[in-house]
Amino acid sequence: MGVFTGRLSGEGKRFAIVVSRFNELVTERLLAGARACLVQHGVREDDIDTYWVPGAWELPPVARRAAQSGRYDGVIALGCVIRGETPHFDYVAGEASKGLASVALSSDVPVAFGVLTTDTPDQALARAGGKNGNKGWDAAMSALEVSDLYRQLES
Question: How many separate domains does the chain show?
C-alpha cells in the first residue's frame, strides 16, 4: 500500500491564473499572493499567465478553456464575492463554486479555488494578505501540490 503526497515544486511547470476584476482591490492582492507563492516554489515568472475576467460569474468558462488548452499544469481561479442587500450574492457565489467544481472534475489538470465569499469588505481584505493570510497564496499552494500528484498518478 503506497502513500503519495504532492511536492511543492514548480520547476518546469506552467500555470494559468484566472482572476476577477470585480472587487479588484481584493483580487489584486489575491493575485499577488498566488504569483509570489508560485515564484517562491520555482515557477518562472514567464510561466505564469494571468487572465482577467469581469467577475466571479465568468471564472468557470475561462478556467475551463485554460485547463483544456494543454498549456498548463494547473489553473488557479481567484475572485471575491461580498454579500450585499439582495440575493445576488447567493447566485453568483454558488454558481461560481459549482462551475469551478465542474471544471476541476472534468479537467486533466488541477483547478484551485481561490474565490472569497465574505459578508464584508473588511473580511475579504483580511483574507487577501491581512490578518487571515492570503487565500491566493493558499490556492497556488493547492495547485502546486495537486499538479505533482497528477504527475505521480500518470507515471
Answer: 1
